[in-house]
Amino acid sequence: MSGDPSEEELEELRKKKMEQLKEQQQGEGDGEAQQAAQEQAEAQKKAVLRQHLSDGARKRLNTVKMSKPQVGEQVEQQVVALAQSGRIQDQIDEEQMKELLSELTPDSKSFDIKRR
């Protein structure tokens, strides 16, 4: 043997490489489809929020999302669920958003610090 791979070994290596590339392409295709579905769901959620929230309520929700992202997401999901069930007749204004936020956020405990 001269150290050169035989034709059979080369062909086997080519087949393995082609199979790996096909698997990789299929995996990327699934990821792209999943990402597209997530983007579409996010766009639908934004459209529902835009339709059912007034400007003041939307600003308040964005402010909450900046400081507490989990609470903001929870409120968004609640508003979308209410809208889809038909329980929202007209737009939610800022006062109604305050009420919704106070219902969904647990009471924060206040601390009195006294200096001596």
User: How many individual domains?
Assistant: 1
Share of β-strand residues: under 5%
Radius of gyration: 27 Å
CATH architecture: Orthogonal Bundle
Q: Spans with pLDDT under 50 lasting ≥5 residues? A: none
Q: Biggest sheet: strands, sense, closure?
A: none
Measured distance between first and last alpha carbons: 91 Å
Mean pLDDT: 83
How is this structure best described in words?
- This protein has 116 residues and is mainly α.
- It has one domain (7-104): PDCD5, DNA-binding domain (Helicase, Ruva Protein, domain 3, Orthogonal Bundle), CATH 1.10.8.140.
- The chain is 75% helix and 0% strand.
- It contains four helices and no strands.
- The protein has helices at residues 7-52, 55-67, 69-85, 94-104.
- Helix 1 crosses helix 3 (69-85), helix 2 (55-67) packs antiparallel against helix 3 (69-85) and helix 2 packs parallel to helix 4.
- 8% of the residues are buried.
- The mean pLDDT is 83.
- This is DNA-binding protein EGH21_13650.
- Residues 23-41 have a biased composition (Low complexity).
- InterPro entries: DNA_bind_arc, PDCD5-like, PDCD5-like_sf.
- Keywords: DNA-binding.
- Residues 1-70 are annotated as: Disordered.
Q: Concise description?
A:
The chain is an all-alpha fold and 116 residues long. Helix content is 75%, strand content 0%. Residues 23-41 have a biased composition (Low complexity).
